[in-house]
Amino acid sequence: MGRVLAVSAVLLGGLIMVGMLATAKPPPRRVVEKPVKPPPPTREERLRAEPLPEVLAPLVSIAQPKLPSGPGDWLSEHPEDGQSLAQHKVDCRPVVGRVIYLVPAGEFSEAAKKVIDRLEPLLAAHFQLPVKRLPPLSDAIAGKSERPHPDFGAQWLTRDILEGLEKVKPADAAAVMAITMVDLYPDPTWNFVFGEASYDGRVGVMSLARTGDLMTEQTVVLERSYTTAMHEIGHMFQLLHCVAWECPMNGSNHQVEADSRPLEPCPHCLAKLMVATGMEPGKRWKELRAAFREAGLLRGVKEIDREVGAAVVPAVVVPGAIVPGAVDGGGAGGG
Ligand SMILES: [Zn+2]
Ligand SMILES: [Zn+2]
Fold first, then answer.
1. 59 CA distance to ligand 1 centroid (A)?
2. CATH number of 93-237
3. Ligand index nearest the alpha carbon of residue 243
4. Sign of the C-alpha dihedral, residues 18, 20, 23, 25?
5. Mean pLDDT of residues grouped by 10 in the chain (335 residues)?
6. pTM over the 0.85 mark
7. Which one of the ligands is nearest to 231 CA?
8. How much distance in Å is there from the Cα of 7 to the middle of ligand 1?
9. Which residues are part of the catalytic machinery?
10. Backbone angles phi, psi at 172, to 5 degrees
């Protein structure tokens, strides 16, 4: 049986050989060069490519594109499309009132009062709007839906505070922001929230409860309070979460994620602020740099120096703006 099979194989091999000899040589194959089509740009790439005002356009070269989100990060849990400049122009209602009001809610220690004192000049410089204080919001309003929390003692429902602020909002308010030492929750199904804002009402609330030790970590507490306040007030000017760049307008699901953000907004969120408040970037950089320095937030000073270094060319220097090498305004050639 084995021998018969072997013979068949030899015969078959012979037939194949004959077949190959009889076949004509195939013509050389032509290689047609098809243009390689690049993949269509992602939503994030399209947002990053959107044209910017001239003064901000060079900042794209130093901005960090949004890094991929890990498990538990905001975008992994809350996928978002972001917001183009064009869309923000449509979304942003005119900012008629010109004052940002801060409102203490609940009990305030001396250390917490100091945080608000130090926040005021930072927010005024960032938004280029005056910042004033309103009398404290009553506990009856702010703590209406209190629930216990094992680590923070108690949590307050943000909605109670937002509704309370609507009632005390002055006519000249651009935005009203409550600040409390009590931890917050936005909905019974959520664990906590750093802060929350109402887009339509232009009111918001933030908590100092998770910012750190108010006595021994003052710089960290101030940095975290500043980024939460400017993020929430940014929402009040109809800025949605940024998905294009690493930016303080990114959503944050936890403290490590929030701490990883730069203090300065990305070029596109700065452009949105220009639309909302009419702020002039050169004047803003000069005043915010001074405020960061005064507050000891050296990370902010460094970020502004990078922005100024990238952005300022003589053609776009406006009266009162910073010029390279003189960002303090007092150095040689300061303007
Ligand atoms: Zn947000
Ligand atoms: Zn941004």
1. 23
2. 3.40.390.10
3. 2
4. negative
5. 39 39 63 82 96 96 97 95 98 95 94 96 98 93 92 94 95 97 94 91 96 94 97 96 98 93 98 97 97 97 96 54 39 30
6. no
7. 1
8. 80
9. 232
10. -95, 20
